[in-house]
Amino acid sequence: MTQKERRPSVYQRNALAPSLLAAAVLFLAPVLLSGSWSPVVLFVTSILAVIVGWFALQARQWWWLPVFATVAVIWNPVFPLPFEGPVWISAQPVAAVVFLVAGGLVKVKRV
């Protein structure tokens, strides 16, 4: 029997792990925002938006920067914007999908 030789991937997706974490928090956000977890959701989302934006910059996919800068500002925990109601609740899964798409598309070539 011959073993199939495995070749390593040509690309690495550095933004995938933070994107998955942010998406999980944002999909749970409608439940978490009703309790005392609201600041945690804001901190996690804004910090991970900056991290994914940085990985997009490193991958030279600069078009993601305005998207994640906007997410970081809207979910900013230091100076929170007064969003609430159905629009704010529906913004959480939309941002989660944006994180997932970016996590899958932001990639750099391995050296």
Q: How does this model look, in words?
A:
By secondary structure, this protein is mainly alpha-helical. It has one domain. The protein is built from 4 helices and 2 strands. The chain has helices at 16-32, 38-58, 64-74, 86-105, and strands at residues 11-12, 108-109. It has a two-stranded antiparallel sheet. α1 (16-32) packs antiparallel against α4. The chain is elongated and about 60 Å long. The model has no long low-confidence stretch (mean pLDDT 91). The chain crosses the membrane at residues 15-33, 39-57, 62-81, 87-106. Pfam families: DUF6804. Keywords: Membrane, Transmembrane, Transmembrane helix.
What are the salient characteristics of this protein?
111 residues; mainly alpha; two-stranded antiparallel sheet; transmembrane helix
Brief description of this entry?
With about 110 residues, this protein is mainly alpha-helical. The protein has helices at about 15-30, 40-60, 65-75, 85-105, and strands spanning about 10, 110. The mean pLDDT is about 90.
Helices and strands in order, then pairings?
Blueprint: E1 11-12, H1 16-32, H2 38-58, H3 64-74, H4 86-105, E2 108-109
Antiparallel strand pairs: 1-2
Oligomer: single chain
Mean pLDDT: 91
Determine the N-to-C terminus distance.
32 Å
Helix vs. strand class: mainly alpha
Radius of gyration, in angstroms, nearest whole number: 16 Å
Low-confidence stretches: none
Number of domains: 1
The main pleated sheet reads as: 2 strands, antiparallel
In order across it, which strands form the biggest sheet?
A: 1-2
Give helix % range. Answer: 55-70%
Transmembrane segments: 15-33, 39-57, 62-81, 87-106
Keywords: Membrane, Transmembrane, Transmembrane helix
Pfam families: DUF6804
